[in-house]
Structure formats: structure tokens, C-alpha cells
Amino acid sequence: MDIIKAISTRRSYGAVLDKDVSNDFIEEILQAASWAPNHKRTEPWSFHVFKGDGRHKLAAAIAEQGGEEGYKKVFRAPVVIAVVSTVGRGKINPPIWEDHAATAAAIQNMALATHSLGLAGYWRTGVFTEHDAVKKLLAVDDNKGDRVMAFFYLGYPDTAKLPPLRNKPNWQSKTIWY
Ligand SMILES: Cc1cc2nc3c(=O)[nH]c(=O)nc-3n(C[C@H](O)[C@H](O)[C@H](O)COP(=O)(O)O)c2cc1C
How far is the CA of 150 from the centre of ligand 1 (A)? Predict the structure, then answer.
């Protein structure tokens, strides 16, 4: 798919629950993520793939503070990839915000790769990203400035609930030419 088309047609899609995603696709998506630009080439991210029964591990961590409601949320797609911005791990490191920015770029790469493969992706965050048990499971080091940046829900699109295309965003009103 042409990159401009991929960017402009990507949406946050819900997934069907009865169709699994192959590891080959997941690997392709994580490879795409890892092409993201990152200052000082520290690759400041980690990916935690919760797939099938593996989702219970994330759900259990979320349930510690998030209760039954939180537990259930993990099962909205066959795969959930938690993405952590892991900062300060290189020999020379950029400012923390730059590592977060690089990880955000990686997540957008995931979203675009997902879309181009005909799959459904949904970048979610919320309070669970701050929960202690979740941070422990994902090896988040608060002292370094790590941050859970995404729970990326992945699956095959639920075509009954496909969202409409977005209205063309108005970049003109946000742009000053000199
Ligand atoms: C950093 C970030 C966090 C997000 N967190 C959530 C979330 O917790 N729940 C949710 O429903 N959508 C979340 N979204 C998705 C946005 O709601 C979605 O991208 C936006 O509505 C635009 O829709 P689109 O992705 O279909 O273009 C998040 C997006 C970003 C970039």
C-alpha cells in the first residue's frame, strides 16, 4: 500500500475475537516498529506480546488495581502488545522526552504496518499504564523515567463495526509559513 494512502486510511479498529494473528505478522509489525527514528540509536522501547492464553498474565496484573472490569478489557482482541519506552539504557542517552517520542513513532509504525497487512490495530493507554502490578510485569523502571506508552490491540478487523474514514484534518489552521 502506498504510504500516503496507508496514513490517510488507517483507523483505530476493533478486532474479531475468533481469528488469531500469526506470529509471522506480529514479527513483521514489530520489525516495522523498530525502523522508527531514535536519537543516539538506543532503540528505547520494549515490546511485550500477550497472545491467546498469554493475555491472562496482563489481565491478572491489571486486575490487581483495575478489578474484574480491567481484567476483561484485555480480551477485546486476540493479541495485545504492551509497548514500553525504556529510557536511559544507552551509552549516551538523549533527554527522556526524546525516547518517548521515538517510541511513539515506533507505535505509529506498528499501526501503519498493521493496516497495510489488512489487520486491525487500536492504540490504547488509560490508567492501567500507571498501575504498579502492570509496571512490574512490564519491567518499567520509574527511576529511569520509563513509561508504558501503549496497549496495542491487534487482530482482524471487525467489519461489522468499521469506523468511517475521518474528515480530512485541517493542517492549514495549524501551520504558519515564513
Ligand atoms: C497516545 C494515545 C493514546 C490513546 N489512548 C486511547 C485509549 O485509551 N482509548 C481509546 O479508545 N483510544 C485511544 N487512543 C486512540 C484515539 O482515540 C484515536 O487515535 C483517535 O480517536 C483517532 O481515531 P483514529 O485512530 O481512528 O484515526 C489513543 C491514541 C493515542 C495516540
Answer: 10
pTM for the structure as a whole: 0.97
Whether ligand 1 lies within 6 angstroms of the CB of 9 is answered as no
End-to-end CA distance of the chain: 34
Q: Could you report the per-residue pLDDT of 63-82, keeping only the tens digit for each?
A: 999 999 999 999 999 999 99
Cα 11 to ligand 1 centre (Å) = 9
By alpha-carbon position, which residue is closest to atom 5 of ligand 1? 124
Tens-digit pLDDT profile for residues 135-172: 999 999 999 999 999 999 999 999 998 888 899 999 99
122 C-alpha to ligand 1 centroid (Å) = 7
> Cα-flanking dihedrals φ and ψ of residue 127, to 5°?
-65, -25
**Domain made up of 3-156: CATH architecture:** 3-Layer(aba) Sandwich (3.40)
Q: How far is the CA of 149 from the centre of ligand 1 (A)?
A: 12
